[in-house]
Amino acid sequence: MKIARIETFSTEFIGFVRVTTDDGAKGIGQVSTYNSDITSTVLHRQVAPHVLGVEFVSIDALTDRVIEREHKFPGSYMKRALGGLDTAIWDCRGKQAGLPVVSLLGGTPGPLRAYASSMRRDITPAAEAERLKRLQGEFGFDAFKFRIAAEYGHDVDEWPGRTEEIVPMIRRALGPDAALLVDANSGFSPPRAIEVGRMLEDHGVEHYEEPCLYWELEQTREVADALDIAVTGGEQDCEIPTWRRMIEMRAVDIVQPDILYLGGISRTLRVCQMAKEAGLPVTPHSANLGLVTLFTMHLMRAIEGAGKYLEFSIEGLDYYPWQEGLFVKSPYQVEGGQVTITDAPGWGVEIAPEWLAKSAYQVSEIEQ
User: Fold this and answer.
1) pLDDT digits over 201-225, tens only?
2) Distance (Å, whole) CA 75 – CA 136
3) Torsion angle defined by CA atoms of residues 352, 356, 357 and 363, in that order, rounded to the nearest 10 degrees
4) What pLDDT does 368 receive?
5) Which domains does the chain have, with CATH numbers?
6) CA-to-CA distance for 40 and 42, rounded, in angstroms?
7) Less Cβ around it within 10 Å: N or C end of the chain?
8) 3-state DSSP helix/strand/coil percent for the chain, to nearest 5?
9) What are 67-122's pLDDT values in tens digits?
10) Distance from first CA to last CA of the chain, Å, rounded?
11) Nearest Cα to 295, choosing from 57, 78, 91?
12) Would you say the pTM of this structure is higher than 0.90?
């Protein structure tokens, strides 16, 4: 396979990628959300020159080629751009084979349990409890994640006492059988994180995400070692050596790679293999309803060691207005707390032509 053309369609918030091979096959992927217009420029300027016209079988080998050629530019933007290339190639291969990507990965189409994931801290505990209770009844969710602390708050809550108020309130609202997860978004020092963690344990919370500054792995390990609750993290990490270190030192109990932050399905599979060898479950980060959640659905139905549930954002257009009008038909339908992967080839999704027509367009291609 050779890539003959790479096209991007982007806004500030989201960007889609279309690859065309030398035999005319096409596939759709996505660069990571936020500053996606910048990421698309990185894709054309620093990725495309190293992949156009290059014969390849292994996507890993292709992305490693880019990383080596651009060795002076490690980090997030490069991986976010590679995620768009990788996911478009997987879609192309699925369409060529007439199979969904999940089948190419060794899994099968079908349902996945989802947890309703709140992104909001500007909401009162009472209002959050009310909307999660409504979603429990309307869509059958039996697992829920909500926010505690203040993002990168250094032990300062969103407002005084919010963390201590919201945890018991959500438990009372949703009942004793609901699975509860919380995300601190690097909000605490280790002593405060441990103190809060014991309160979480008292209320049956089972997942404690990113309690301390995420790049301070020793802090996270200190919290994980002190608590029985599962301490989780990794969404921000995009370098394979960081992942290797995190897993080897057992800084977390559950690993949470984000497919598009990390650089695509193929690089995420490397992290999944490390986690499998260490006996750690994988519950990826997928915090919006662009394509990252669909990619994660296919991954989780295929890997050994997948976590208990898929992260599924409950935020609508009032919070993420850029989600409007992305797809001809949404791939996200929740019934009985589950979402389903169909047997449609590739990712099984079509970007709305009206959305594409309004986006910023760039193309890189082999000179004829």
Assistant:
1) 999 999 999 999 999 999 999 999 9
2) 39
3) -150
4) 65
5) 3-98+351-365 (3.30.390.10), 103-341 (3.20.20.120)
6) 5
7) C
8) 40, 20, 40
9) 999 999 999 999 999 999 999 999 999 999 999 999 999 999 999 999 999 999 99
10) 18
11) 91
12) yes
Q: Which of 300, 242, 223, 292 is nearest to 269 (CA)?
A: 300
CA nearest to 99, candidates 301, 262, 309, 307: 301
Full DSSP string of 324-336: TT-BSS-S---BT
**In whole angstroms, how large is the CA radius of gyration of the chain?**
20
**How many Å apart are CA 51 and CA 66, to the nearest integer?**
7
**Is the pLDDT score of 367 beyond 90?**
no
Mean pLDDT throughout 5-15? 98
In DSSP terms, which residues pair with 20 in a beta bridge?
A: 5, 26
Provide the H-helix boundaries in the chain.
36-42, 48-51, 59-69, 76-97, 101-104, 125-139, 162-174, 190-202, 217-226, 240-248, 259-262, 265-278, 292-300, 353-358
- The structure tokens listed for 65 are 């080629």
- Ramachandran region, residue 357 (left: φ > 0; alpha: ψ -120 to 50; beta: rest): alpha
CB 80 within 8 A of CB 31: yes
- For 5, counting Cβ atoms within 10 Å of its Cβ (0-12 exposed, 13-18 middle, 19+ buried), the class is middle
